[in-house]
Amino acid sequence: MEIAASLGLSVVERTVDRTELYMADEMFLCGTGVQVAPITRVDGRVVGSGKLGDITRAVQDRYLAAVHGELDEFRHWLTPVYGRPS
Known about the structure:
Blueprint: H1 2-6, H2 18-23, E1 27-31, E2 35-39, E3 41-42, E4 45-46, H3 54-67
């Protein structure tokens, strides 16, 4: 949500009705395991064009830049990990 907001996107957390999913132009899931993954089908129905959308791509790119330490505004998300001393 922070990444989407940093891209100037309006962010709202709320319950979504299933019919809204069917009418969406694009959707994605996000989390530490999946990172940012496009949703191209819901209940066998194609979402938008059925391909990765521009907004999803922008969020993916910004997420990857953040977790690779390339964005100062998200550096607080990172914990340095150092190798064992020899």
